[in-house]
Design brief:
223 residues, alpha/beta, 21% strand, Response regulator transcription factor, Arc Repressor Mutant, subunit A, single chain, five-stranded parallel beta sheet, 2 domains
């Protein structure tokens, strides 16, 4: 589970962000003592920081500079001070992205997800894959959507993982079968069809319809 530190002095906003991120399976905490953000950063050891500019005692630029002395963790500035000068300064101080207030929480989550994918996916340690609100948990082979959670069979999980790792790209049936054969008992073309049909039914049962599409003569795709 990725940890996100929220450095925001408006507690209403901070709590709303935390609650939203927790719903997306992130571990989020917000700062309450703004005299020493660095110490709390070290203690929490987050994988991403959401940082306001206007803060008590020292501004966000100061804390961004202090964090950069000890860490390369992604930092997304969140601020109503969204003029070009502040955005340029935020980037020059070591920020990775900027979200202007007021913002839609869904857009903020999308920014967070994109930043985490870019920053950590190459290490091969992504614990979740998210697409259109569908969250596939790599660590325990479960799928979550809105308020529903289902446990997937090994084949169902592997099929969905392959497709979500290649969103927008049609994956040939024989490619999927080869991947399944590597980790499970032998699977033929008919068995793959049965598995995909069953997976579609399970997705439909929790409100996820038309998620896996058939590309005739090729295979399957998640768009």
């Amino acid at each position: 589970m990725y940890k996100i530190l929220i450095v925001e002095d408006d507690m209403t906003i901070a709590k709303a962000i935390k609650n939203c991120l927790c719903k997306w399976n992130y571990e989020a905490e917000y700062i309450e003592d703004f005299k020493d953000v660095t110490t709390q950063f070290v203690k929490f050891d987050p994988q991403l920081v959401l940082l306001d500019i206007s803060l008590p005692f020292f501004n966000g630029y100061h804390w961004c500079n202090e964090i950069r002395k000890i860490s390369k963790v992604p930092i997304i500035f969140i601020s109503s001070m969204a003029d070009s000068m502040n955005i340029i300064m935020a980037v020059n101080m070591g920020g990775d992205d900027f979200v202007a207030k007021p913002f839609d929480l869904n857009i903020l989550v999308a920014k967070v997800q994109a930043m985490i994918r870019r920053s950590y996916s190459f290490g091969g340690k992504l614990e979740v894959i998210e697409h259109k609100g569908v969250v596939l948990n790599i660590s325990n082979a479960t799928l979550e959507y809105e308020n529903s959670k289902i446990e997937l069979t090994k084949n169902e999980f592997k099929i969905l993982q392959i497709l979500l790792e290649n969103v927008g790209k049609a994956i040939p049936r024989d490619t999927i079968m080869t991947r399944l054969w590597e980790s499970d008992s032998y699977i033929d073309d008919n068995t793959l069809t049965v598995n995909v049909t069953r997976l579609r039914k399970r997705l439909s049962d929790v409100g996820i319809s038309d998620f896996i599409k058939t590309k005739k003569g090729i295979g399957y795709v998640v768009e």
